Amino acid sequence: MKVVVVESPAKAKTINRYLGDGYKVLASYGHVCDLPSKDGSVLPENDFEMKWQISSGSEKHLKDIITALKGADKLILATDPDREGEAISWHVLEQLKGTKHLDGVDVERVVFNEVTKTAILAAMDNPRQLDVELIDAYRARRALDYLVGFSISPVLWRKLPGSKSAGRVQSVALRLICEREAEIEAFQSQEYWSVEAALGLASGDNFTARLTHLDGTKLGKLDITSEAQATQAVTAISAAKLAVQSVETKRVRRNPQPPFTTSTLQQEASRKLGFSASRTMQIAQKLYEGINIGSETTGLITYMRTDGVQLGGEAIASIRQNIDQNFGKRYLPDAPRIYKTKAANAQEAHEAIRPTEIARHPNEMRAFLDHDQSRLYELIWKRAIASQMQSAELDQTGIDIGDAANSVTLRASGQVIVFDGFLSVYRESKDAAQDNGNADRANGDGDDNTALLPSMAKGDQLTTHSVTPEQHFTQPPPRFTDASLVKRMEELGIGRPSTYASIIQVLQNRDYVIKDKGRFTPEDRGRLVSTFLGNFFDRYVEYDFTAQLETQLDEVSAGNLDWKTLLAHFWGDFKTAIDGTKDLTITNVLDVLDEELGPHFFQADETGALKRSCPNCDNGRLGLKLGKFGAFVGCSNYPECKFTRQLASQNDNADGDAPLTDKELGPDSVSGLPVYLRNGPYGPYVQIGDPETKKPKRASLPKGTSASSLDLEAALGLLALPRDIEPHPETGDMIQAGLGRFGPYLKYQGKFTSLAPDDDVLEIGINRAVDLLAEAAKKAGRLLGTHPSGGEVHVKKGRFGPYVEHNKLRATLGKAHDIADISLETALDLLAAKAAKGPATAKKAAPKKKATAKKTATKKATAKKTAAKKTADKQKAV
């Protein structure tokens, strides 16, 4: 018997089917050991000794492995092929070494990039030993995270009450979000104008062109700053006799992007599908571990934590064959496209994310996947196919237009797809507003080079049909989304792709940032922490310093740097920084925070000075104060003046002294009643009408909605809930969206379905609603087939676990069967066994009278004993 250890039970079941008899596959359920959350788990003074502890709940899983090893001749460690997977195998082995169950048992380590039968069997034929360098890199990372967290966090708690923990990489990511918010608050919008002309040829063809030069001077984006200047430009264009001055056309080729890595998958899934980074990884994990596709459970994609963009030779051959068969030779390059990874650590640069079998078309897999799984699989499949397709060819045309006096020059640009190539399958998202901060281009203010222009030649005379000036205002850089934050962290070298999802999730869990409509806004608590760290631990939240540490960790896993040497160099300087905060007082901290965050919490007057006058006394100055439960705004004349208010951004308070959630948003256009945003004991809510004159209608804000960004339109939408979306296209029954005590929901045919975190209850449409209802119905029950005696057989989830049902006869699946893998044949066997047992017979309850009689007899016996004891006591007394 051979015992195989993997991380997850889903993967264990799939691999057990592939290996068959002679193997027993067990799950470790992730890491079996971790550092205890207390001081002394890492001892720098004792050569960085690390005291590991079995994780809660892992004792049972280790016991199962030990039991299985009795009589076994081999232990095969088959966890994931990355740093974390290597560490799990190491921890399992270290725990087993303390027992005698490894005596006479060979230990092997196998890795595979996909959960398919071919890959699993090939891995078993090519075992290796544990990779010590990867294990050392894991230990170094955990030690660094522990030393930073358990050294800075206590300082944070003492000097900044109400704060939560600080992490090594999370703090740097928080800094990114806070700095972007500060840029937005400091941004000064500028007015500018663009001028476009609708022009026509003698042939009757029309097109538009944009003004680029005026009186021989090239215009910058912000050069026309007023309506008067724009009107002058309109007059000049209208008076000019325009003709084509030059036509330039060039053929360009666009090459496909490489297959997905972890970070590019997270970015595209965020842009195209609206998934958070953690949601993307959850779905990808399931696709990797295996889905029941009818005949058996199999992994649909390769390992999803990778920096690599390269594909294996067999995968490339399979993809090229698919392109040849389904798209034609015109779409197939003469030679395979070879992509090279930029990852510094070749040991962890695994194959890119791709389908395990390219022949499994997304349309065919849709029947076996839920809505989100299907969309993510389709994204991965299309990207992999497109990566080996022919380049797209486009003709880009630029036309300059002007008059003989050179008083005005306009430009029209456009492009025509000559050959679509890979674009016939996949087009990468290019959201300029998210990635480059160019909101104006995303809003249509940039050059439109996708228009189809009519044929024209130099010297063609043009007719001016109309000239249109358009006012614009420069926009601040956009807040980070999952996609843009992941991309920025990758560019800076902060963290690694496998950690991005957890980094973002930790920031949300600690209430340092809030995600509103897909974008991250720092909470006041997060800004205080980030400012504190930036001033008193500046080196350790610098982007370059964090990136250098990541590079050094890569060098450890490559075997080029000793892990304890890395820790020793880090700890010497870091301990000095920690010791330097011993004399730091809360007053010192407050002075720094008050100075740096003043523009955030207080509004400026006409002269630029912050409005800090206390509204409650004559000469008090408002500033940041710290209490038991965190920071607040208070008066300098305390305790004589006890004025306080909650922290609130100056952008959210017109006068700088009103609480964030206590303001009037405007009047309702129908009733004329005022609409308020208020703060209650259970959080912020919106209200219409004055409570003194009429009982007002109220509505709570959905979880994750930022009160600071709520406007009148959104408030009225919340107050109008529930709302009708549209009738269901199949049944005609109305679908409603509403907000209940458990959050946003859909209501259809009397049943409620919760909305996903990224769905907006005010904006969700009929297509998304139908998809969610179908997905919920699929989770609630699945049709397996028809019973031989007639009627349908379903598998469903119940209060006490999954079960199969036929004509009200139910049979539980038990631990031996998985709801995702259950087949009709197995269901029929379970139902037959249940029917053979007959109906369950309830135990007869004991007659009530007998029970009463017994109770009475007991009471009498007790009374008798008490009386006898009293008599005996009297006799002794006499």
How would you concisely characterize the structure shown here?
By secondary structure, the chain is an alpha+beta fold.
Enumerate the spans where pLDDT stays under 50 for 5 or more consecutive residues.
431-448, 649-661, 848-855, 869-878
CATH class of the largest domain, named Mainly Alpha
User: What name does the CATH topology of the largest domain carry?
Assistant: Topoisomerase I, domain 2
Number of separate domains: 9
* Structural class estimated from helices and strands: alpha+beta
Task: Walk me through what this model shows.
Helix content is 37%, strand content 21%. It is built from 24 helices and 34 strands. The strands form ten sheets. Strands 9, 10, 11, 12, 15, 16 and 17 form a seven-stranded antiparallel beta sheet that branches. It is globular, with a radius of gyration of 34 Å.
What key phrases describe this protein's structure?
single chain, 878 residues, alpha+beta, Rossmann fold, 9 domains, 7-stranded antiparallel sheet, 4-stranded parallel sheet, 24 helices
In terms of topology, how is this protein built?
Elements: E1 2-6, H1 9-19, E2 23-27, E3 33-34, E4 42-43, E5 49-50, E6 53-54, H2 58-69, E7 74-77, H3 83-97, E8 106-109, H4 117-124, H5 132-159, H6 170-186, E9 191-200, E10 206-214, E11 217-218, H7 227-239, E12 243-254, H8 262-273, H9 277-289, E13 291-292, E14 297-298, H10 313-326, H11 362-365, H12 371-387, E15 392-402, E16 408-419, H13 432-435, H14 439-442, E17 463-473, H15 482-492, H16 497-509, E18 513-516, E19 519-522, H17 524-536, H18 543-557, H19 563-579, H20 586-601, E20 622-627, E21 630-635, E22 644-645, E23 663-667, E24 674-680, E25 683-688, E26 697-700, H21 712-719, E27 723-727, E28 734-740, E29 743-748, E30 751-754, H22 766-780, E31 781-786, E32 792-798, E33 801-806, E34 809-812, H23 824-837, H24 848-877
Parallel strand pairs: 1-2, 1-7, 7-8
Antiparallel strand pairs: 3-6, 4-5, 9-10, 9-17, 10-11, 10-16, 12-15, 13-14, 15-16, 18-19, 20-21, 21-22, 23-24, 24-25, 25-26, 27-28, 28-29, 29-30, 31-32, 32-33, 33-34
